[in-house]
Amino acid sequence: MRRQTLQKAAAAARPAVSRRTFVARAAYEAARKMMPKISDTERVALGCGTVGFDREIFSGKPSLENLLKTYAPLVTLTEEEKSFLDNETEELCALVDDFKVLEDKDFSEEVWRFMRRQGFFALKIPKDWGGKGFSTAATSAVLVKLGTASSDLASTVAVPNSLGPGELLVRYGTPEQQKYYLPLLADGTFIPCFGLTGIHSGSDATSLIGSYGEVEERNGEIGVKCTFDKRYITLAPVAGLVGIGFELKDPNNLLKGQGEEGFTVALLERNHDKLEMGPRHCPLHAAFMNGTVKGSDVWVPMDAILGGQERCGFGWHMFVECLAEGRGVSLPAMAVGLGKGAAPMVGAYARARKQFKVPIAEFGGVQEALALMASDGYIAMASTELMNAIVDNHEAPMVLSSIMKQNVTNRGRDIINHAMDVSGGAGISMGSTNYLGSAYMSFPIAITVEGANIMTRSFQIIGQGLMRCHPHLLDVVEALQSDSADAPANFMKGVKNMASHGATNFGRSVVAGVKDAVSLKGGEVGQMAPDAFVKLHEERLQRLSANFAVAADLALLLGGRLKFEEMFMGRLADCIGAVFLGYGCLHHYARTHDKVDEGLQRVAEHALLRLEAEAFEALKHAADNVPKMPAGAHRVVGSVLRTAVAPLGDLGATTKAPSDRLTKATADLLTTRDSDYASTLLLPGVYTSGAYQKEVLGALSLCLEADAIERACKRARKHPTADEQKVLEAAAAARDRIVQVQAFEKLGHAERAPGHVRPALAQTDAWLADEPAAREAAAA
Questions:
Q1: What is the C-alpha to C-alpha distance for residues 141 and 385, in angstroms, rounded to an integer?
Q2: 34 Cβ neighbours under 8 A, 6+ residues apart
Q3: What is the mean pLDDT of residues 337-361?
Q4: Catalytic residues
Q5: Calpha distance 163→527 (Å, rounded)
Q6: CA-CA distance, 341 to 739, in Å (whole number)?
Q7: Is the dihedral of CA 196, 197, 198, 201 positive or negative?
Q8: Which helix (H) or strand (E) holds 777?
Q9: Sign of torsion over alpha carbons 762, 764, 765, 771
Q10: Nearest-CA neighbor of 614 among 662, 582, 646?
């Protein structure tokens, strides 16, 4: 009886199972038609790098607790690293006259020797090979300090310590290559460079147009005949060792399964036959070495392939995993240098510089600019510390490094632009006392190199992020690319997980939005307990993360078209970028609030309010501009996203911009001594030993004292005492020295030539001499 009952139940279930299988198969086949085939290069890219906190953001519920537990212990420097920063790095900064370097377009012989012999090009090479073996945090700190003395100095040291042959050799070189090259790189005998950028492919390692090689056999040994035409290669004009990226082909199958076709890296010394190096570019008149690397039919023995023959075709893995260092660490360090070095200098200058008998630090427009410099500097510093710790945790997060490169370098450009606006003529008049001009001219280079920010924002961050970091998408894609019998079932399982993921985050978004609308929390400047401050802003960031997760899920409905909707992807990139940087600020504040006074909360609040508003506005614009879909589906998608982001409209929206009161208080961090924020967190680790830096920073207290005396005398309608008059006179003298700019009797190579007379003056003299004769001739 029991057996018959079970048989009937099974028979009844078979049609339902069959129907589900049919539906799954039909949905699977329809999705396969919509899904573009993943190329071999894309498949390799998906297997490179790591995911971590970026996946938490895509999941909709990131955790500050996890960040602190995982990365906080990795932020500090060792005693050896601190000593190198305080001594060798300080000494190198003192050797450089930035204006002379800019004029000469090169460093002195003394500076080159010091950089090479003191290990500045081997910060990341392990001690076993003669290098410093420093952490990423220490390398970043060195670059920050060098950048506050000379942007060319930071650029020169950055390349060998990020994407270069040294880093690649440590990870992938053969024992023979490591034994030969690493000691020579460590002691500075070889200066390294990496040749990737081509004329028609830029820095796109997936499209090495014009850089190719073919496996050949010569004299019984196989090697590669290469042709390449590289440009924009930093350090190429002085490099002794270059890594060349090229596309390898093996039409005759000479590799025989040991290695494969694809992106490959060769190591070539400067004197290699048919290798052409030397000509320089002039990148915005910066002085760092940058030039071309060319070769036609260059013979590369197989032992010159990085990692040997078995690493043929493995270059994409090498490139991607090392790129996180350059994009996520080296370039953001230059923005940090501006936030830590230029911002306090400009603040002190604004206190010294008077207009209409009032320090310009008291002008509202100047205070707005200074507050933006302060909070952008804090964002750059805090997020860079977190990113350094992530890399020191042996992670290579491509999405987070792209966010750092695009977002933090953009903020660095904003910092230097505001600095120039406040400084006025002192910023644009070049000379040995101008600490902004060189950085202002060269910072667009950081925006452009290693993937232009436009492409990084509008394509890379979301294009890579959706596939790598979404908790379920990769499972669905792998099922669609598979021909196995259980692929439809795996596909449906992934789709269900994605639907559940989307529904959960939609619900979380709506609940959080309504909760914020009913009871908005806030806090005046410096008046919230640290734990309450952290809790408030993490709740907002978690809400925005859930909003972003919904937007990312809805974006997938565009299918293969998404990669062409770059404005839409750019808005999503703005959101995830702001959320990650916000967590960077919280990570920093939670670790350091007990070491700094309430000024830290001022700048952190200013920064977080801006980031939260940026994320919200990005999602709001995304909801209003969903790309057109069949049957008007984009309107439905936009409505769903709009509901998730702002369920009750602007009520409860995370768009509370910093108040004028907070803006002024944040600017005061740079122009007064009311807080120890600048002296505790900004000025340590930057170069302040130059004569002009000492003058400006040292005058801040004096000018503040003089301003207080003037205000008191004005209120009391009295003259200053003798002692007060001495302070006023000392401050006036300091102000006069600080606002001076250099003027040159002769400027430029032509004027310095013996006997040179400026053509305009020579013409005036000649025409004045001719004029009487011309008048007489006319009268006759």
A1: 9
A2: 559, 560
A3: 95
A4: 450
A5: 45
A6: 18
A7: positive
A8: helix 759-779
A9: positive
A10: 582
What SS3 state is found at 583?
A: helix
Measuring CA to CA, which residue among 155, 78, 90 is closest to residue 686? 90
Distance CA 726, CA 426 (A): 27
Q: With contact defined as beta carbons under 8 Å apart, do 75 and 389 qualify?
A: yes
Tell me the C-alpha distance between 5 and 536, whole Å.
59
Amino acid, single-letter form, for residue 214: E
CA-CA distance, 2 to 630, in Å (whole number)? 53
Judge contact between 502 and 640, C-beta under 8 A.
no
Letter for the amino acid at 516? D
Query: Following DSSP, what letter does each residue of 716-749 receive, concatenated?
Result: HT-PPPHHHHHHHHHHHHHHHHHT-----SS-SH
Token duo for residue 14: 């078979």
- Residues with Cβ within 8 Å of 768's Cβ and at least 6 positions away in sequence, in order, are none
- What is the percentage of the chain residues whose pLDDT exceeds 90? 71
Question: SS3 of 575, please?
Answer: helix
Identify residue 293 by its one-letter amino acid code.
Answer: V
- Give tens-digit pLDDT for 248-263: 999 999 999 999 999 9
Mean pLDDT over the full length of the chain: 89
Helical ranges in 393-486 per DSSP H: 398-403, 409-423, 425-428, 437-448, 453-455, 461-469, 473-481
For residue 451, the number of C-alpha atoms closer than 13 Å in the C-beta half-sphere is: 27
The bridge status of strand 354-355 relative to strand 358-359 is antiparallel
pTM: 0.92
Amino acid at 29: E
The residue among 152, 74, 83, 150 whose CA lies nearest residue 119 is 83
**Token pair 């500050």 in the structure block, residue:** 64
CA distance 604 to 378: 7
Sort residue 117 into left (φ over 0), alpha (ψ -120 to 50) or beta. alpha
Which 3 state secondary structure label does DSSP give 12?
helix
CA distance 134 to 237: 27
User: Region 726-752: what's the mean pLDDT?
Assistant: 92
Q: Distance from first CA to last CA of the chain, Å, rounded?
A: 140
CA distance 427 to 416: 10
Where does the pLDDT of residue 44 fall: very low under 50, low under 70, confident under 90, or very high at 90 and above? low
Collapsing DSSP to helix, strand or coil, 126 comes out as coil
Partners of 294 in beta bridges: 229, 276
8 Å CB contact between 492 and 485: no
Write phi, then psi, for 654 (nearest 5 degrees).
-85, 60
Please report, as a single letter, which amino acid is at residue 62: P
Q: Are strands 241-249 and 262-269 parallel, antiparallel or unpaired?
A: antiparallel
Hey, what are 403's tokens?
A: 């966010």
Yes or no: say if 234 and 155 are a contact pair by the CB < 8 Å rule.
yes
Measured CA to CA, the distance from residue 574 to residue 554 in angstroms comes to 17
CA dist 713 → 198, 366, 620, 702 (Å): 67, 26, 53, 17
- Answer for the pair 409, 335: CB distance below 8 angstroms, yes or no: yes
Strand (E) positions, 4-148? none
Structure tokens at 17: 């199972």
- Give the angle subtended at the CA of 196 by the CAs of 190 and 199, to the nearest 5°: 125
Residue 730, judged by CB atoms within 10 A of its CB (0-12, 13-18, 19+), counts as middle
Residue 645 host element (H or E): helix 633-645
**pLDDT tens-place string over residues 457-493:** 998 899 888 888 888 888 888 787 777 878 788 888 8
3-state class of 118 per DSSP?
Answer: coil
Residue with tokens 């906190």: 53
**Beta-strand runs (E) in 259-340:** 262-269, 275-280, 290-301
Structure tokens at 379: 């964002």
